[in-house]
Amino acid sequence: MTLMSFSACAQSPTKQKKDTLMEKKNPYYNPNRKEAVVVADDVWKTILSPEIYQIARQKGTERPFTSEFEHSKEVGTFHCAVCGNPLFKSNAKYESGCGWPSFFEPISKESIIYLPDNTHGMVRTEVECGKCKAHLGHVFEDGPKPTGLRYCINGVVLTLEK
Ligand SMILES: [Zn+2]
Questions:
Q1: Which of 24, 86, 107, 117 could disulfide-link to 124, CB 3.0 to 4.6 Å?
Q2: Tell me: the pLDDT tens digits for 137-149?
């Protein structure tokens, strides 16, 4: 119990520090922007952390069960960590058990881009950020009601704004 409360206390300042650093370093992070964010990958590479760059720009996948957001019950809005685009509300998040943060619906149709993905011998639908085309994850048709969809999203490319 002592250990648990210690780690809970220790996490919060670290997270804030990370966010502040990111906003300073990333001039394209702006939740209020309306237009598309078009930036070359070699520029992103100098702006984003290696973890975010690898997933967002190179379609990587974080290791399952590693995201702090997977079991998070915090209330707020999940934004694209690359450009700040609002993507999912916390009330659309659910426990899918798949190892990544899961949502049954995005904030709006326009917040997401859908693309066919036939890599790795699977037929899947890739989801990207509607504003900066960051790779977010995939959407599957085995989610809960009312949509029946499971947006399986890499936590690395999400920021939670409370
Ligand atoms: Zn974005």
A1: 117
A2: 999 999 999 999 9
The pocket of ion ligand 1, defined by CB under 5 A, consists of 80, 82-83, 85, 129, 131-132, 134
What's the CA-to-centroid distance between 82 and ligand 1, angstroms?
Answer: 5
75-113 tens-digit pLDDT: 999 999 999 999 999 999 999 999 999 999 999 988 999
Residue 31 CA to ligand 1 center (angstroms) comes to 9
Please give the model's pTM, rounded to 2 decimal places.
0.84
Domains of the chain in sequence order: 2-161 (2.170.150.20)
Residues in the chain: 162
The answer to whether 83 is a known catalytic residue is no
